[in-house]
Amino acid sequence: MKRIELLLFCFALLLFNPGCSPVKEKPKAKPAIPVKTALAVQKTVPVQIKGIGTIEAFSTVAIKAQVTGQISRIQVAEGSDVREGELLVSIDPEPFKAALRQAEANLAKFQAQARFATDQARRYDGLVKEGIVTHDQYDQLRANAESLSAAVASDRAAVANAKIQLGYCSIRSPISGRTGTIALHAGNLVKANDLTILTVNQISPINVTFNLPEKRLAELKQAMAGGQLKVEAMIPQNSGATETGSISFLDNAVNPATGTIKLKGLFANKARKLWPGQFADLVLTLASRQNAVVVPASAVQNGQQGEYVYVVTKDQKAELRQVVTAPATEGETVIEKGVASGETVVIDGQLRLTPGAVVTSEIPLAGGKQK
Fold first, then answer.
1. Does the reported pTM lie above 0.85?
2. Structure letter (DSSP) for residue 117
3. pLDDT tens track for 26-65
4. 301-303/306-312 β-pairing
5. Rounded CA gap, 108 and 106, in Å?
6. Does residue 315 sit in helix, strand or coil?
7. What ranges do the domains of the chain cover?
8. Which of the listed residues 6, 49, 51, 89 has the most CB atoms within 10 Å of its CB?
9. Burial class (CB in 10 A: 0-12, 13-18, 19+), 47
């Protein structure tokens, strides 16, 4: 019994003796989190607005006949370039030549009658003074001469109108441009101002119409007061189709249904990269921001408190900073408040970070590039 009691006593002594308890290990330090970083740099950046516009012909003319007749010949091909004044369509001129000859004949007849009536009235003027003829006879002759003179003037107008109608048989292009689909061909009868024979679009220069939110109207007007605004148009999926132009039109009212205002950009389009009916991505440059702090757009994150970035401190820890930004441009964001030039910001791996976390990053270079 004494042995058993002694063993129990030793076991209890070992159990409750703190000197015999296992040694606790210190918590291991968390490993550094790998991230990609870039430097915040200071430079001049353009203040730009981006939008989507529709390309429209500078001017469009629907070619119609101004007289009723038969088309004798289409002088141009579909999709061809034409100059202002170039002959497009010929209408059979023979009926109009005949009408002109008839008007000229009527004019000649009445001119002869008017000359005879005028001479007769002049002779009777002397006879009235001598009392050989009555005043009534003289007045009748003079009225007849005046009536025939009026008929001559009317026939002159008829001759001029017949020449105009004959001129309408040759339909010429009122603008320089490009022809579209030809709807009517030789042999078709046309009525005056009825069906469109073809359409001519002026595409050099060319317009691009787009809309901007009304909240940008104030800065837009301020920028336009300083001179012409440059705008670039780019065709999606075609990096080479880029044209530079200027704002040529600002609408006189905001559309209350959409809250936008309409603008037009004018482009020389000498290489014809822009084509009517296409959609184009537009970049409107309002001004230049001097000495702006710029970071890659991927550095800026959105949280419950607004926009923020993670800045890497000198001891390689992540520091969360709330920032105030300006609109992004070309993959970069202007930081108005929260980050200074030369500081290192995280551009990839933010989701794994918490404030104070140790990070390991690539060495940043100027302009946001990494080694």
1. no
2. H
3. 556 678 889 999 999 998 888 888 899 999 999 999 999 9
4. antiparallel
5. 5
6. coil
7. 30-59+205-371, 60-91+171-199, 94-167
8. 89
9. middle
